[in-house]
Each structure stands twice: as C-alpha cells, then as structure tokens.
Specification:
Largest sheet: 7 strands, antiparallel
Number of helices: 3
Structural class: alpha+beta
Oligomer: single chain
Radius of gyration: 25 Å
Helix content: 25-40%
Distance between the termini: 93 Å
Number of strands: 7
Order of helices and strands: HHEEEEEEEH
Strand order of the largest sheet: 1-2-3-7-6-5-4
Length: 182
C-alpha cells in the first residue's frame, strides 16, 4: 500500500509540473511597442522603423517641427521606448560640405551607400547629405546643404547595414520635398 501511495504522489507531482510548464508557454513573446500614429514628421514607414526598436511596453515621442530659420538650423525626432532611446532622426542645415568627412563615425566601421551625397551606414545608424538650393516656390535659404542622420538602439547591430539605407532614403526624399530643394 505504501508503494502505491508513492506512485500516486509521483503522478500527481508530474501532472502539476506539466500544468505549470504548459501555463508558461502560453505567455506572449515581448516585442517592441507600437509607434505613435504620426511620428517623426510622417517621414518614415512605421514598419521599417518598428523593426529596429527595442523590446518594451511604451513609446514616447519628442519631435521638433520640421522648420528651419537663421536661428533654428537643426531639428530632431526622438522615439523613446520605456524611457530609453529607441530611434533618432536629425536634420541640420550647413553652409559648406566641410562636415562630410564623417571622421566621427570611423570607430563604427561605416560603409558607403548610394543615398544622397557621400552616404554611409554602420550597424546602428546611417548618414548622408544633400544640396539644398531653394526653388522659386520655397522660402529664403538658411543653408546650402542638409545633413541627415538616423540612429537605432533596438537591433544591437543586427541587420542594420541592410535595412537602414532604405530608412535614410525615405528621410532624404521627405526632406527634399518638404524643404523644396532643387
């Protein structure tokens, strides 16, 4: 009789463990949170950027208006995930091409890309610049070149060199259209 009690106890314990383990497998896999409906001037495809966000619960956006003047020569869009940086897009008007040496990115081992002029990509970001001569229908010029760069933190360098050029290309097309660059 004592032996059958041990067997019954072992079976009950086994069933309990199976139930507990199967309950854990029903949990959702965490992923990056959804982006706000309108983010970063509507310059980017949300699915492309979402793939680079870190895992988390909540996003917050901090975005400057996409407007330049003599006093306001740069704009930024920052997407935070659970209070930490997730995605960054920046645009800055420059008077000359002296900034295009990209020497500050050397430690990231950048590769050239065919986006804008002298575009580069590294594991967690990409940068380029375009000439921005005003057209007849645009406002006064505040710079001759527009430097554009993006940065991500969620991919930890996985796949960025393949996908970030496409995101930078979206940003470049948006900026040229918005600023009415010739």
């Amino acid at each position: 009789m004592h032996r059958s009690g041990k067997i019954a106890g072992t079976i009950a314990l086994s069933l309990g463990l199976i139930t507990a383990v199967s309950g854990c497998s029903d949990e959702k896999t965490k992923s990056a949170p959804d982006l706000p409906n309108k983010f970063c001037w509507n310059a980017f495809d949300p699915e492309d950027v979402h793939a680079h966000l870190p895992v988390g619960d909540e996003t917050k956006q901090d975005t400057d208006p996409f407007y330049f003047s003599e006093r306001r020569r740069s704009v930024n869009c920052l997407i935070y995930v659970d209070g930490n940086s997730g995605f960054r897009a920046s645009a800055k008007l420059e008077d000359d091409e002296g900034f295009t040496e990209w020497s500050t990115y050397e430690s990231a081992n950048p590769e050239p890309i065919a986006v804008g002029k002298k575009g580069i990509v590294w594991d967690t970001g990409a940068a380029t610049h375009v000439a921005c001569e005003p057209t007849a229908s645009s406002g006064p010029s505040t710079g001759k070149f527009l430097r554009l760069d993006i940065g991500v933190t969620g991919t930890q360098g996985k796949g960025g060199r393949k996908t970030l050029p496409g995101i930078l290309k979206q940003f470049t097309a948006f900026a040229q259209k918005e600023l009415k660059c010739a």
